[in-house]
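If it is no trouble, might I ask you for a protein's amino acid sequence along with its backbone structure tokens?
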Amino acid sequence: MKAQIQEYLSLLNSTIKKIEVEVIEKIAQLFIYARDSNKQIFVFGNGGSGSTASHMVCDIIKGCSYNKDRRFKIICLNDNITTVLAYSNDVGYDSIFIEQLKNFLNEGDIVLGVSGSGNSKNVLNAINMPMKKMRSP
């Protein structure tokens, strides 16, 4: 078991070393822009990535907004379980995030999909949603 734990920690450390600080900084700047411009931020993912998205939103809502005059308007779309279940059952799992965005997304809002594999179709559908198509009658 010790070898498995060491292998996991080694993989985790290797992954962390690949993270580019500039990318995290750019995301933080976009989030601050959204907050200061009264824009919304939508975050979502599946499985463990969904848990990461949910936790991140919680940290920003409380940790970065509590007792502040300027607050982040941020929501995790996978936390709305009844909506996720309704769309997955009635329309299809690939549309659970894009359909929610169609209700709320405005120009200038931020969309952040979290995917460990980078292949989650429902996440990709939502982050690639064109504004024009979304707005057409």
